[in-house]
């Protein structure tokens, strides 16, 4: 294994653009890429532009009729078929939609291939993590489900156990659905409770079906959960399940929309806690998956203050050159931010809360604490199915 990390990047991924008034502004990708370069991380990893996912790859997860509908909407946005979730408020059709979506998917699939084959130990595609797309439809700003496609490609290459950990504020419903009955894939999603946030799924009782019963794990956190609760929940569930499952590869999705500044959700997590989970995923990949780690982006709609910093931390961690939380952001990047957005960019790579503390689950359970209630509901639903004590 080379040990050298890969960053998957093709500038054309910024063509994934739902329009000027849509929350998913591709400037978040541009600014992240420029911040990665501003910190000199390009010298620490291999930057790779992969080919778009072809139809045979897309069919690993998506139905042919849906792929055909995306192609048709891509060529004629005005004629998009809304029965496939296209041309809707969440997923407006745009010219070149198929090409941009397939390109993002291709980066995630290539990341999975590189890690599986040993060309890289870790690979990052922060343009990816589009976890809501279903086999037969677009959903929640997601057209093709690159995260599910990466996992499916690993299975096609011979992987027998793949773990997928999703810490986006929204439930990773599309990935869960793709592998609902597949015992080879463990999906773990920590997200805001479905009572208060799209897509209204991800209840702890959703545990998989058939041969896959016990391979879907959902931690539904109450609105307002902050750093200590979020980290407590993560460490109360994820490490133990990964140790039991023994994945050959860890795929993680790092949506930045858990942040307290995010306009579309209601958790209160800091950049520093996001960084702490990124570090934890890196360590867990080495502890339980032979170091094989594919890290993806996801949601995140505070496109200047939060997303670029969060994902630059992710790239640095994967590259083995983590950016210090107290690091001052290069002035050239801040000038670029103002030129592109007319906003002032942040000054440092921290929200001032590093290191972030939390109480370990082993230290005791508080029956009056809503986060502890959420964790216990998950453990009671899933752990017995995996032969573990809740």
What are the defining features of this structure?
390 residues; eight-stranded parallel beta sheet; 8 strands
Give structural notes.
Helices cover 36% and strands 10% of the residues. It is an alpha/beta fold. It has an eight-stranded parallel sheet with strand order 2-1-3-8-7-4-5-6, sandwiched between helices.
Question: Any low-confidence stretches, pLDDT <50, length ≥5?
Answer: none
The proportion of residues in beta strands is: 5-15%
Rg, nearest Å: 19 Å
The overall average pLDDT, rounded, is 97
Per DSSP E runs of 2 or more residues, the count of β-strands stands at 8
Overall 3D form: globular
Q: Main β-sheet: number of strands, strand sense, barrel status?
A: 8 strands, parallel
Separation of the first and last Cα atoms: 37 Å
Trace the largest sheet across and list its strands: 2-1-3-8-7-4-5-6
Q: Which percent bin holds the helix content?
A: 25-40%
**Estimated structural class:** alpha/beta
**What kind of oligomer do you see?**
single chain
Series of H and E elements: EHEHHHEHEHEEHEHEHHH
Total helical segments = 11
Write the layout of secondary structure elements.
Blueprint: E1 6-8, H1 27-38, E2 46-48, H2 55-58, H3 64-75, H4 97-117, E3 122-125, H5 146-156, E4 162-166, H6 173-178, E5 185-192, E6 216-221, H7 227-245, E7 249-253, H8 271-288, E8 293-296, H9 307-319, H10 331-341, H11 370-382
Parallel strand pairs: 1-2, 1-3, 3-8, 4-5, 4-7, 5-6, 7-8
Helix pairs in contact: 1-9, 1-10, 4-5, 7-8, 7-11, 8-9
């Amino acid at each position: 294994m080379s040990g050298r990390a890969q960053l998957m990047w093709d500038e054309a991924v910024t063509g994934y653009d739902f329009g000027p008034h849509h929350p998913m502004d591709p400037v978040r990708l541009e600014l992240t890429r420029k911040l990665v370069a501003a910190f000199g991380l390009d010298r620490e990893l291999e930057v790779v532009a992969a080919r778009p996912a072809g139809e045979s790859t897309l069919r690993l997860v998506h139905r042919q009729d849906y792929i055909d509908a995306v192609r048709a909407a891509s060529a004629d946005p005005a004629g998009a078929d809304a029965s496939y979730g296209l041309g809707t408020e969440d997923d407006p059709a745009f010219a070149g939609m198929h090409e941009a979506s397939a390109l993002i998917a291709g980066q995630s699939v290539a990341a999975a291939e590189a890690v599986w084959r040993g060309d890289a130990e870790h690979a990052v595609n922060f343009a990816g993590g589009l976890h809501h797309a279903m086999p037969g439809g677009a959903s929640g700003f997601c057209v093709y489900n690159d995260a599910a496609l990466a996992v499916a490609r690993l299975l096609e290459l011979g992987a027998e156990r793949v773990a997928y950990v999703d810490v986006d504020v929204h439930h990773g419903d599309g990935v869960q659905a793709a592998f609902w009955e597949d015992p080879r894939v463990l999906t773990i999603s920590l997200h805001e409770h479905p009572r208060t946030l799209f897509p209204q799924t991800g209840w702890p009782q959703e545990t998989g079906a058939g041969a896959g019963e016990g391979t879907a794990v959902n931690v539904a956190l109450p609105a307002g959960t902050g750093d200590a609760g979020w980290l407590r929940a993560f460490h109360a569930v994820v490490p133990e399940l990964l140790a039991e499952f023994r994945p050959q590869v860890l795929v993680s999705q790092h949506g930045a929309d858990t942040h307290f500044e995010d306009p579309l959700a209601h958790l209160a997590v800091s950049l520093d806690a996001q960084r702490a989970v990124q570090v934890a995923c890196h360590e867990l990949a080495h502890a339980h998956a032979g170091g094989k780690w594919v890290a993806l982006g996801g949601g995140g709609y505070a496109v200047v203050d939060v997303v670029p910093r969060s994902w630059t931390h992710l790239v640095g961690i994967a590259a083995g050159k983590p950016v210090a939380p107290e690091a001052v952001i290069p002035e050239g990047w801040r000038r670029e931010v103002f030129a592109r957005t007319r906003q002032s960019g942040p000054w440092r790579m921290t929200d001032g809360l590093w290191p972030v503390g939390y109480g370990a689950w082993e230290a005791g359970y508080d029956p009056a604490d809503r986060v502890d209630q959420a964790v216990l509901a998950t453990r009671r639903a899933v752990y017995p199915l995996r032969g573990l004590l809740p």
